[in-house]
Amino acid sequence: MRRVLGVDDSRPHGTVAVLNDVEPDRPGLDSAELNALRNVRLFGAVGSVMMAVGALGAGAQPVLQNPLQGVRVLGLFARIPTSALSVTMIGTVMVVLSWLMLGRFAVGSFRGGSPRRLSRSQLDRTLLLWIVPLSVAPPMFSKDVYSYLAQSEITARGLDPYVLGPREALGLDNVLTRTVPTIWRDTPAPYGPLFLWIGRGITWLTGDNIVFGIFLHRVVALAGVALIVWSLPRLAARCRVSSVGALWLGAANPLLLFHLVAGIHNEALMLGLMLAGIELSLRAIESASPIRGPALALLIGGAGLIALSATVKIPSLLALGFVGMALARRWGATVRSVLASAALLAGVAAAVMLVISWASGLGFGWVNTLNTASAVRSWMSLPTLLGMGTGRAGVLLGIGDHTTAVLSLTRPIASVVAGVIALRMLIAVLRGRLHPIGALGVSLGALVLLFPVVQPWYLLWAVTPLAAWATRPVFRVPVICFSAFVSVILMPNGSEYQPFVIVQAAIATILTVTALIAVTRNHLPWRTPDGAETEHPRSGAYSGSL
Predict the structure, then answer these.
(1) What CA dihedral angle connects 245, 250, 251 and 256, to 10 degrees?
(2) For a Cys staple, 206 with which of 31, 212, 354, 534, CB 3.0–4.6 Å?
(3) Average pLDDT of 79-107?
């Protein structure tokens, strides 16, 4: 398959290309490993249930129409915030630890553990078991879904969500406006017309019923997650990477579970459509037959899905450039082939965006609100962190706070750097030095890190495609560490608690998790198994886990 694209199957060149290596699936865990896998699955499921239960009091509950208010048993959690937060945090840590242990059976140990992996069906069942409790829990880690509901109501009323914020369009006393975080009440919608069109349909079904609206928005998010789970193994196969390894890092990642499923972010739909579109496009490009007839229809369909994903959030449109370079290489890697592929895919994208913008009645006002999120200053954004650090240093030195002035320099420079990196990756794909999946992931990674504002779930823009291509520890270890760290430090209510509440919950979490580790030390693979014991495991407990 890689030869069709002209990608050299021998050792790739360049510092980026060495992130990729052949990683075949080798299912066939022995009885001891299967027993440990079942225990890991159960441990994570218990953690997921605890998160769902704790979210009844510690989640991102609506200001109005809270269905738990006044209920004797379920409403109790809202009156004991420290206990509810403790339960949620314990569950969060349990899911993260379970994911780390599951990695032993998905990608092996970076110190040379067993080469055997769990099967695709075993990973699917594990992922489903962990997702189900979060699918029925109240929103967690973010209140963005309430902005979705308010913007959908604005659209349903025939008003322009790209001009009016919830306060101006709906009024401050509106039940949906009251649930929107204060910082976003005067902000127009930064999302594409497809997402708001879907939101209009949800509003038509639910009216101002917040709970029902949250449920339907989560259904949309779960549809996006399903597309991610469908696409990742197929993309991994094109890169000769283990499908379970790709699914473990990309789909079972706590960032996805916590922020796309529990947090109901529209990145789920964006990424699902983008990855599915890339898979269909590459299937057509890598086919042995000429690209005409059914293959051309498949290519156009895949490009159309990528364009659809961009009408949810615009960054996914970058994927169309890498599909175009793969197509140009298939056609001879000449200037003429680049122009031809660019014309074809640009035509498809323009047609899709025109149809969606016209059919939804929303037009192209969304182009003017793409920079809305930059109002937030995020420490995870490198140019923003540099600007804020420089401004703080100026205050300490007595020369004044010049943060805004510095940001006006660092952010444009970062944008140029991100553009240069993406251009270099496009050329690498055209020359056959990088697979388009890997090049796209690297480009999205640069875009995320150099973006004016970065939220934790933005990392999934890069992690999901790279999970299907990058196999080396130099990539996986930082992603694993960052995913685990960020997943356990964010508050489940989408904002901050009083410091003493966090301290008490953190102490309870540390003590409880320590006790759980001690109790399960003979049943869960807390440590990497020794090589000799991996080949000849003892029956019962997981060998070498003590």
Answers:
(1) 150
(2) 212
(3) 89
